[in-house]
Write a structure and sequence with these properties.
This protein has two helices and seven strands. It has about 140 residues and is α+β, with helices and mostly antiparallel strands. A hairpin with a 2-residue loop joins strand 4 and strand 5. The longest helix is centred in the N-terminal third of the chain and has 20 residues. A five-stranded mixed beta sheet has the order 3-4-5-1-6. Strands 2-7 form a two-stranded antiparallel sheet.
């Protein structure tokens, strides 16, 4: 069971006829438009890490102007520009090039490279499973 992200009906908006708080209505409409844009125009790659924990931080969306390069995982041509750590063992990479949803396992050195990006993106907090998992 789960969500079929290829089902466009999941992204059809809920209409609001009247509301006391137009700001909230606009935020929800904006979120729906952005979700549809991300779904329809970006490539999704789910990264599973079982050798090393992926860190989390207070600024979870890592967005780069140029392609993220990680040895034996991403090259510049992959166009992966956004990383979103979701849990200790799961990170989502979004590409500016539309492609099918993909899944791959990453090794400990690739997880550490992602963790370096997470640490550099953090504003105040970095969260890891153990004190040792947070390296500086």
């Amino acid at each position: 069971m789960g969500l079929d992200l290829n089902d466009d009906s999941l992204f059809e908006g809920v209409s609001f006829s009247s509301s006391r708080n137009m700001t909230l209505v606009k935020m929800i409409e904006n979120a729906q438009e952005n979700a549809a844009c991300i779904h329809d125009s970006m490539g999704w790659l789910f990264l599973y890490s079982f050798e090393a924990d992926v860190l989390l931080c207070d600024q979870p969306f890592i967005i780069k102007d140029e392609s993220i390069v990680i040895d034996q995982l991403f090259s510049g041509v992959d166009e992966y520009i956004i990383l979103i750590p979701l849990s200790r063992q799961l990170c989502l990479a979004l590409s500016s090039v539309k492609s099918d949803i993909k899944h791959t396992y990453i090794n400990s050195s690739q997880a550490m490279a992602i963790n370096d990006l997470i640490i550099n993106n953090a504003e105040r907090w970095v969260i890891g499973a153990t004190k040792e998992s947070i390296h500086c």
